[in-house]
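Quick start: what a row looks like.
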Amino acid sequence: MDTIVLFSIIILVASILQTSTGFGFSIMATPFLLLLFEPRDAIQINLVLSLVISIALIMKIKKDIDMEILKRFIVGSLFGLPIGISIFLMMDMTVLKLAVSVLILVLTLLLVLKFRIRQTSKRDLLVGGFSGVFTTSIGMPGPPILLYFSGTDTTKEKLRGTTLAFYLWIYLASLLVQVFFAGTSKEIWVSSAMALPIVVIGLFIGQVLFRWISQDLFRKLTYVLLLFTGIYLFVQQVQ
């Protein structure tokens, strides 16, 4: 029963964040799902539910999508996806998550210190590639895109719209790659189905919150989520 309650809370909070910010589900859910499930199961549950959220929201946010950046993200991710699944299958997950946590913390610190990045076509491709690597390896496409968009002072509407549209592609592609190369299980799909009603509630609450979040609060929330993810992954691996 305790596991079910914890699972429900994780999915609800992550769904609210994903809907209101465009990036919160994998960042919030994956570290905690790894406490409840094996790495493969946690990653695939995250991919399934994140895909559902992206499908549910795509029509609402299509006017905010930057199509040119989106196309470059997708092209870049095509190179990152096979690299990510190779890392997942071959590399020790503890080492991988420790490396990711340090990278997130260093880059977030740069953002807090007002480090800024100029958006270019080549950097769009590179960020899409890193996002592809992160998705098939640890189920978290958000950090590279979030760090990039935050560094370029992108508006919250454009960030949410473009990110959710990209997730529609990257989560579907990553789920297919994961299932094909790493296999799947009945528990993954049963757990995902059980979580769907909670996701619907999170979608509703998140849509309401998005209208009340200012650009400044949005940026601060971004930093908090990134710091939380980096610190949590780091502490989890060194204990």
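That is the whole record. The longest helix spans residues 156-182. Residues 145 and 155 are 13 Å apart (CA to CA).
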